[in-house]
């Protein structure tokens, strides 16, 4: 079995914990819980005739990148860069975080997760901004931890990137 560490990275309240809960346990809670430090979950998936054990590190959301977080990233095979589409500033924070993560770990697979797609009436991210991200060659996937849209796809896509590397 192949084991891969995946870090959930993003500003606070973007839905990192909810995405993990939806993926691992198929649940969603309306209650907001702040992650303190890191919460670790795991799930085994079958992909391309391989079993992958994904170790999911749900790292506390911060608007300031702390040294302690850099130590959480060590050993990661990839990461999910999570934004809240109803808060434009989380995209700006994600762009900064991506640079810092890459400076720390080098170029490893990641996916930009456009979360809270179930709230499109409150969406603040413009289509042109998503197009600009796609032009960088990044993979961006729309998700909703609330209704499950795209959640499985995000983890499956990242797992495929692991196998293709």
From TrEMBL:
Record-linked InterPro entries: P-loop_NTPase, Rab, Small_GTP-bd, Small_GTPase
Signal sequence range: none
Alphabetized UniProt keyword annotations: GTP-binding, Nucleotide-binding
PANTHER family from the UniProt entry: RAS-RELATED PROTEIN RAB
SMART domains attached to this UniProt entry: RAB, RAS, RHO
Domain of life: Bacteria
Source species: Dendronalium phyllosphericum CENA369
One term of GO molecular function: GTPase activity
Name of this protein: GTP-binding protein
Gene3D superfamilies according to UniProt: P-loop containing nucleotide triphosphate hydrolases
């Amino acid at each position: 079995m192949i084991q891969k560490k995946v870090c959930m990275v993003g500003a606070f309240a973007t839905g990192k914990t909810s995405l993990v809960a939806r993926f691992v346990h198929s649940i969603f809670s309306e209650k907001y819980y702040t992650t303190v430090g890191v919460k670790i979950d795991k799930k085994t998936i079958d992909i391309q005739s391989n079993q992958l054990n994904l170790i999911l590190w749900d790292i506390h959301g911060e608007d300031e990148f702390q040294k302690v977080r850099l130590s959480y990233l060590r050993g990661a095979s990839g990461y999910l860069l999570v934004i809240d589409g109803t808060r434009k500033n989380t995209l700006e924070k994600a762009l900064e975080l991506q640079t810092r993560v890459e400076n720390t770990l080098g170029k490893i697979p990641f996916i930009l997760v456009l979360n809270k797609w179930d709230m499109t009436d409150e969406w603040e991210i413009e289509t042109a901004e998503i197009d600009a991200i796609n032009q960088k060659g990044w993979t961006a996937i729309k998700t909703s931890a609330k209704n499950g849209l795209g959640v499985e796809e995000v983890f499956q896509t990242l797992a495929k990137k692991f196998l293709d590397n």
